[in-house]
Amino acid sequence: MIRDIRSAKKNNYDLIIIGGGFYGVMIAYESACRGLKTLLLEKNDFGSATSFNSLRIVHGGLRYLQSMDIHRFRESVGERKWFLENFPNLTKPISCLMPLYGKGLQRNSIMGVALTLNDLLSLRRNRSVPGTNRLANGEVVSAKKVQKIFPGVDPKGLKGGAIWCDGSIDDSQIVLMEILKAASQNGCTPLNYVEVKNIIGSQNRIEGVVAIDRETDEENEFSALHVINATGPWSRVLSRRFHKDFKELFKYSIAWNALFDVAALSDHALAVTPHRKDAKTYFLRPWHGKLLAGTVHEQLDGVKEIPMPPDRSIDSFIADINLTIPGLDLSRDHLLKIFSGILPVKKAMPRHRMWNMCWKLWG
């Protein structure tokens, strides 16, 4: 892929996509594969915002069975299958373990039914997937086996554990670039560090965009009859700039994960819940030999280039992990990096912290 703005300006495009995160790149891939002449514009580098800051797990939809959202479950299963099938060298299965203490829905019997339903509703999850990337059925195991898999587990009241498989993308930015490369090979023109400033058009007709090359500060015009705003958290900013603000486009929350300079606690991703009232479930997964933990969700009042959680939230998160895993003794000194991004919520969140909203499992 060559960044050639001068040549790109000479073309008339069927479609201009603004925003080069995973959503924008996937739209570019799909449109290019369908023969549309596509231009993808990203104001920073591709996949540099929320797309880079995930927990790097491709969930298959198990959590949606709690609300019986079968449509979203099957959609998630299909998306996971696509990644495992098309990127066998960059994705892999990851086994997930949830210790069960016989409270609420986190009981051996209930999780056994849930895992069986999960497997039955995803019977085709391994079709066309290479053998090394196929996902095993879930199972409920004994407390003894949980302790073998996860030696640091709190043994007090432990009744067993639920194990299921999901997908893992350890280096998501490489996968994103591979998708972008495939889009380019099918005719898409991707340009990074190009920021769209305005829409060109008249009488309710789109004719293109005006954009600034952030490397030279040169203004450029690109022609197309259709423009897609795929800027995620910045969609309202662009909408306001081009026309007017639509609050329903994006209601903000910050989502963040923490990387600790601590050896991974297991070769499984661990779904653990602190032993306190109204606690939410966290994922603690191995990542390049270290401990990557999250996801925490909190209210955010507006869009920010680099959103960061307040210190009190980080301290509370560390305290929760220590409460869950006796003897771990995490501290700020172990913290290597916060991976944070902005995600939408359906409605404004209350002022108190909303821990792990999107990753809640059966808690």
Summarize the structure.
The chain has helices at 5-9, 22-33, 70-86, 108-120, 143-149, 172-185, 235-242, 311-324, and strands at 12-13, 15-18, 38-42, 57-58, 92-100, 139-141, 160-168, 189-192, 194-202, 205-213, 218-224, 227-229, 252-263, 269-272, 282-287, 290-299, 335-344.
Describe the model.
The protein is an alpha/beta fold. The chain has 2 domains: 5-52 and 173-249, 3-Layer(bba) Sandwich (FAD/NAD(P)-binding domain); 71-170 and 251-344, D-Amino Acid Oxidase, subunit A, domain 2 (D-Amino Acid Oxidase, Chain A, domain 2, 2-Layer Sandwich). It has helices at 5-9, 22-33, 70-86, 108-120, 143-149, 172-185, 235-242, 311-324; strands at 12-13, 15-18, 38-42, 57-58, 92-100, 139-141, 160-168, 189-192, 194-202, 205-213, 218-224, 227-229, 252-263, 269-272, 282-287, 290-299, 335-344. Strands 4, 5, 6, 7, 13, 14, 15, 16 and 17 form a 9-stranded mixed beta sheet that branches. A 4-stranded mixed beta sheet has the order 1-11-10-9. The longest helix is centred in the first third of the chain and has 17 residues, at 70-86. The model is unreliable at 349-363 (pLDDT under 50).
Write the H/E string, N to C. Answer: HEEHEEHEHEHEHEEEEEHEEEEHE
What is the level 1 CATH name of the largest domain? Alpha Beta
Radius of gyration: 22 Å
Low confidence ranges: 349-363
Whole-number mean pLDDT: 90
Strand content: 25-35%
Query: How does the helix and strand content classify structurally?
Result: alpha/beta
Q: Largest sheet, if any?
A: 9 strands, mixed
Number of strands: 17
How many domains? 2
CATH architecture of the largest domain: 2-Layer Sandwich
CATH topology of the largest domain: D-Amino Acid Oxidase, Chain A, domain 2
Number of helices: 8
Helix % is: 10-25%
For the record, give the distance between the C-alpha atoms at the N and C termini, rounded to a whole number: 46 Å
Question: Which outline best applies?
Answer: globular
Look at the structure and name the CATH superfamily of the largest domain.
D-Amino Acid Oxidase, subunit A, domain 2
